[in-house]
Amino acid sequence: MKPVSLIQFLIEERRAGRINAELSLLIEVVARACKRIAVATNKGALGGVLGEAGTGNIQGEAQKKLDVISNEILLEANAWGGHLAACASEEMEDPQPIPDMYPKGNHLLMFDPLDGSSNIDVNISVGTIFSVLRCPDGVVEPKAEHFLQPGTTQLAAGYVVYGPATVLVLTFGHGTHEFTLDREVGSFILSRRDIRIPEETGEFAINMSNQRHWEAPMQRYIGELLAGKEGPRGKDFNMRWVASMVADVHRIVTRGGVFYYPLDAKIKDKGGKLRIMYEANPMAFIIEQAGGAATTGRERILELQPTGLHQRVPVFLGSKKEIEVATHYHLEADGAQG
Ligand code: FBP
User: Fold this and answer.
1) InterPro entries this protein is in (predicted)?
2) Among 68, 92, 245, 317, residue to substitute to test ligand 1 (most atoms within 8 Å of Cβ)
């Protein structure tokens, strides 16, 4: 079969009336920026890009050099691109307006420029996560409140994993598709169209070191998985935890499984660990479009009304039937379900 490039795929989506020209060009700009981030991450120590930047971000985290480099690459490319009204990033407190010298567009872009920062210096897969919304009509200088739209209003979402291969996974709400970077040609090539995640799974991902801090229903649920076929679930479950959400989610998009970053006593005051606007919402859109499910343990993530640009939420996502079990245990414990 003749290889289909990302550009060809986007043109097909436009001809089918599923996306408009501006959105397709915006995705081209984001993909091109991620190719530059791939080059920077691949250089590692030889590129002088490892280690701390010596600065902190709005999350109170020490920034890695590659966090800052990736953020700048995405800001620069999208400011010039001409398809945005503004963008927002994990690395910046407030939305970034588009400089007046560049044309503006009708879209809002949010991104986690380099997800999995704790793995950068140890050569484990990291990635970029992004989400696209429509800028509300009549808004010329978008503020944070204009980004606070439920995940169901996303026009596009995607992530790029910088691993052994560089892979882009994308949805516009018409299925989830995968593209692999052909380094010789320098193009993303369609490698899987209309991905379907198996509804059942025997593989879960969670940071077990937080177990003592979990709520009772999570203790019960994971306890039953660990009890295996001798336990109430009657089957064995295997565990994985890369500690890069993009890598853990990509494994699920590839072969099924479930990923949990639940609420626990340590992070209760923050509302969770992962951020709704540029981690939970885009990943939930991608997973649901591939036949999976994504909840907070209680509610569908995409239906949440965001309250802040850097708001954190619990994240349960992956193979549908398994997410339903974990969510049911929480609602049952709350007395919301029999
Ligand atoms: P950032 O690296 O973008 O801050 O993302 C948070 C993250 O690294 C996720 O990628 C990952 O799933 C999680 O935190 C790992 O958490 P922990 O260090 O508790 O295992």
Assistant:
1) FBPase_C_dom, FBPase_class-1, FBPase_N, FBPtase
2) 245
